[in-house]
Amino acid sequence: MHSEDEQAIRALIDTWMAATKAGDVATVLDLMTDDIVFMVPGREPFGKEEFAAISRSQQGLQIEGKAEVRELQVLGDWAFARTFLKIAIRAPNSNRLERSGYTLSVYRKTSGRWRLARDANLLSLG
Question: Who has greater pLDDT, 14 or 43?
Fold first, then answer.
């Protein structure tokens, strides 16, 4: 049985995945803190504004994914999750690109609501 906080974080992850598939950038942005930091291989860490620009530049892509939470720990108003992701991306008239790997995400509860605060994404081509 998962705690109420764990259920809320799992629901956030599910909402993120569904909104990404639907191309709903506004919903995804609402699931993160304003001071979020993303870390991905091969580039400097970046924040919410750059994430929004990247997401908007990907409009028209078909993005599908599955997130499997492997570990989730809640520590007061902070939590972390280790998640295995499988993502498939396809541009119109293009081959399907698949990526898979782990993320380590830190969540913060503010005003009674969980949001993503830090994300280290280790996905690789696969």
Answer: 14
Contact status, residue 66 vs residue 88, Cβ threshold 8 Å = no
- 36-45 long-range contacts, Cβ below 8 Å, gap at least 24? 36/116, 36/117, 36/118, 36/119, 37/117, 37/118, 37/119, 38/119, 38/121, 39/118, 39/119, 39/120, 39/121, 40/120, 40/121, 40/123, 41/121, 41/122, 41/124
Residue 2 C-alpha from the chain's centroid: 20
* Domains observed in the chain: 4-125 (3.10.450.50)
Predicted TM-score (pTM) of the model is 0.91
CA dist., res. 41 & res. 114, Å (int): 26
Contact residues for 40 (Cβ-Cβ < 8 A; gap 6+): 120, 121, 123
In the chain, % of residues over pLDDT 70? 97
